């Protein structure tokens, strides 16, 4: 089966619903579902409420592609089978996990017509690991500045630029997440090969989430 490709000339906007309760997540999704391109069931939500509950609930609200942010560290193929049976289009694996796990996940994603994202969270030599995974056949590399890192004042933009330079020539695509909002998204403007921009709190934790999502889409369309 051929790798799935995102057909878009501009990055897509993905909302990360990093809740711990399904009620709060679905309430937010009902508000912003028309303003985003992709909907992510965040890792805390999947752990708290379960894949078999969260993804079907999201599917009832929207037909937009769904992400199961599993960050699979082992037996990715088993976790991905469950995600595939519950409407997931994107699944994530930890790039720091063993290559055997990533290969299993890649095979499962291909078999189930899903898109695999390898999340570089916690990888020290992230440029070389990204190159290795793109050569392995991983289509999308996730650049992630986690919430714990953000609390220490770190940001995603320098890391994204470095990885872009490392993998663009190899054909790899980038998915970027971590502290992005309407005030700083323009820092991504001249970085190549960004396929998806993920925003969590920049949409879900502001006074006007619908307006924030609309503004982000407008900025993406104007700066890329």
Descriptors for this entry?
10 helices, 224 residues, single chain, disordered N terminus, TIM Barrel, 8 strands, alpha/beta
* Gross geometry: globular
Structural class: alpha/beta
CATH topology: TIM Barrel
How many strand units? 8
CATH architectural designation? Alpha-Beta Barrel
Report the top-level CATH class: Alpha Beta
Strand content: 15-25%
Order of helices and strands: EHEHHEHEHEHEHHEEHH
Overall helicity:
40-55%
* Count of domains: 1
Rounded to an integer in angstroms, the radius of gyration calculated over CA atoms is 16 Å
Distance between the termini: 31 Å
Mean pLDDT: 93
Give the neighbour order of strands across the main sheet.
1-2-3-4-5-6-7-8
Segments where pLDDT lies below 50 for 5+ residues? 1-7
Tell me about this structure.
About 45% of the residues lie in helices and about 20% in strands. It has a single domain, classed as Alpha-Beta Barrel (TIM Barrel). The relative contact order is 0.15. The chain has about 220 residues and is α/β, with parallel strands linked by helices. The chain has an eight-stranded parallel β-barrel, surrounded by eight helices. It has ten helices and eight strands.
Offer a concise description of the structure.
It is built from 10 helices and 8 strands. The chain is α/β, with parallel strands linked by helices.
List the helices and strands and how they pair.
Layout (H helix, E strand, L loop, with lengths): L11 E6 L4 H11 L5 E4 L1 H7 L1 H11 L4 E7 L3 H9 L3 E7 L4 H13 L3 E5 L6 H11 L3 E5 L2 H4 L6 H11 L5 E5 L16 E6 L1 H4 L4 H15 L1
Parallel strand pairs: 1-2, 1-8, 2-3, 3-4, 4-5, 5-6, 6-7, 7-8
Helix pairs in contact: 1-3, 2-3, 4-5, 6-8
